């Protein structure tokens, strides 16, 4: 047990540390793109909210491992009745922490899903069918979360105090089996729906196959959410009553969810850190220009991180994207330079938002 607790502690705080790095990398990436921390999007605030819950979750899961729960005494009610005062108090405390752990984990997982919905909502703006699908998935996620929480609180274990009762009065108050099956079904269903969205967008993009594959890999990371959820439930249901081995998979599930939602948003920071990543070569003029030296007030629209730029350039123009992406942009004065998705004039003023691989020329 000592070795398990040590291993779980290391795993929990390592995964927590990685999650913290990714969340703040996401925030820094948004600052790079927007030019100011005051211009964070709602997704970044949701991730800060998740980080608070993740901190509580990491501490709670270790408390459960240290103290156990009434699940240990599910098949031995006589032993539970004869526990000493200290052991009884410890078991009740562990049972309460197990219940808190479930609330925290559910909130983290479903907040991550809403954050993904917001990202896909922006990416599908201009594609009515997919835009509507994203809205429906978002509604599904909100309804699912509320329904799972309500049933966990009012349905599966009655009275509510049964969650920490000794001895156990109802099996579901200790095993959570009905709750876990119900929650997992909704959880995986939402993940599958979210996973289908990028696979419906990306194949139609006018991009080299290599970039399509890269985008699919980045935006398709949700498959790991599904895998983590399945493994968590498998080890949970197959665990011996006196084992807390399944807690490692709780850590794996909520850790994976936080990684998946933040990795796609970290590309601007990676481009800045990696050698040569801060400079982007103009497509037609071979002129190098730092795409992040633009003054934020010159932006005519917000832009997404590099992993989202190709998608954004397409979905904002609907059915005319093929013609739009090939078009050259002419301006009446100055010498524009095409950088990423923008035409930049001397003095760092953006004249027109243009598409990826457009050619900018001047007209006297």
UniProtKB/TrEMBL annotation:
Family: Belongs to the SAT4 family.
Name by which UniProt lists this protein: Rhodopsin domain-containing protein
Superkingdom of the source species: Eukaryota
Transmembrane residue ranges: 12-28, 40-62, 103-121, 133-156, 176-201, 213-235, 247-270
Predominant location: membrane
Subcellular localization, as worded in the UniProt entry: Membrane
Keyword Transmembrane helix among record annotations: yes
Annotated membrane topology: Multi-pass membrane protein
GO CC term, one of those recorded: membrane
Entry-linked InterPro entries: Rhodopsin_dom_fungi (IPR049326), SAT4-like (IPR052337)
